[in-house]
Structures are given as structure tokens and as C-alpha cells.
Write a structure and sequence with these properties.
By secondary structure, the chain is mainly α. Helices cover about 65% and strands about 0% of the residues. It has helices spanning about 5, 20-35, 40-50, 55-65, 75-85.
């Protein structure tokens, strides 16, 4: 993760939330942080996936392996769509 972004102390996400609004709030928080950093869409996806913790990190690793998702190809929008599919629409 880029050092300047690390200094912002981005919120981690572990999936232990009780409401879908909390999932959406985490995504919004990430979008706000990216507004002040000029990263490529791919770097945004890589940084976002880097700060996943616990069961969400395991879900992401499993998903990457089963769908053959490569970090160099993934955009932030694609990551968000996969995240929403799992954590917002599956509830």
C-alpha cells in the first residue's frame, strides 16, 4: 500500500457488521480517501483488497482463485461490484 495512503489510516473491513449500511459506509469511506489520491483504478482495487481482514480477506482470496481474478486486471469498480454482490445483496 502506498505510504501516503497508509498515513490516512484507511478503515479495514472484516465483514463483522450487522447492517448492510455499514458495508456501504465502508465503501463510501474508501471512495472519499481515493478522491484525495491520484491512483489508477487498478491501484485503488489493489489498495482496497489489501485492507480486507478476517473472513472477508479469505472470501476475496478464494474468489480470486476460483474466478481467476488477477490484481493487474481488476478495477475498483469491478471490485466494488463483487463486494456488493457478496456483502450487500446476499443478506
Amino acid at each position: 500500500m502506498p505510504e501516503e495512503f497508509r498515513k490516512e489510516k484507511p478503515p479495514t473491513f472484516d465483514g463483522d457488521v450487522k447492517k448492510a449500511e455499514e458495508d456501504e459506509a465502508w465503501l463510501l469511506g474508501m471512495k472519499k480517501l481515493f478522491r484525495i489520491h491520484d491512483y489508477s483504478e487498478n491501484m485503488k482495487a489493489r489498495v482496497t483488497s489489501y485492507i480486507l481482514k478476517g473472513k472477508v480477506d479469505k472470501w476475496w482470496e478464494d474468489l480470486k482463485n476460483t474466478r481467476v481474478i488477477t490484481k493487474k486486471d481488476l478495477t475498483r469498480e469491478e471490485f466494488e461490484n463483487l463486494f456488493r454482490e457478496k456483502y450487500l445483496y446476499e443478506r
